[in-house]
User: Fold these one by one.
Assistant:
Number 1:
Amino acid sequence: MAEDDTTASETYELHGPKNYSMAEIAELVDKEIVKRRRHINVPARALKPLADMYNRLIWWSETSSDSVTREFIDQTIDPKAKTFKDLGIEPGALANLTFQYLQGYRSEDYYDLPPATEREKREERKYVHIIDDQ
């Protein structure tokens, strides 16, 4: 694509076969790293000033009001734009790629565990897991 002159001045929408919400991606990540993280929905109007204050308190950039703005944008796919198909590329499903990318974020207790098989995923959906923290 970088060296092909026919792709110059073209718009490409490079997305996978399925659209994911932020909550769905967070759930995929939690399952893959075998850890339940807390996700709190905070409105953008409250989160932007908090992000700016946070960046003033620490010397490395963790977040910014711009990243908060981008997180709340719902991207719409341009039907006229070219896709992976026009480049001769078949995109993979995100759910099939998470293990290799997220294995390093697992704790040492689960690091060597292989990814869940399709059968294990089906079995997990059959049951409701109740965790009693008391």
Number 2:
Amino acid sequence: MAPKQPKGEYIETDTGNKVSRRSLISGTQNIILGGRTVIQADVIIRGDLSRTLPSNPTPSGSAPAASNHVAVAIGRYSFISTGSILRPPAKLHRGVYSYLPLKIGDNVFVGPGCIIEAASIGNNVWIGKGAVLGKMVIVKDGVRILEGAVVPAGMVVGVGSVVAGKPARVVGEVGVGWEGLNGRELWKNTTG
């Protein structure tokens, strides 16, 4: 019998995603990774917090149609750093507490120790260490959120903005030529 190969830090999926064995991912059936995404150690992704179908049938008497149960969707070449927490935003609507999907675009860098509860994060976004994105935040493409920023619930951050502060506000623009994260290089350099 051949000796077992030593287990590395990361599990690599068929689509090239690298997920740390020390991350905590709940509700994997409700999480979509776009490919070549890196999820480091001690990251918590709450895919178990997804929309549920109503228990009563529709007015026509038939069962309700199946809905999209995606809780967290992460695009290609994104990088989620150690100790970050990703959970879908929730809101109270007509007396029912409901979770909405968290959508993260391509080439997104989430720094260490971030808490993300946004509704949407665009492409080529850089989120600095310890940043907090509140419920239902929408971050457009090409945004840079500086270290320690606390983006308040419901804020919409425009294309190419630089955001900082507690509470966060737009403090500038990223400038011409800023492309944010080189996700391919980070993905290639992640081994384990």
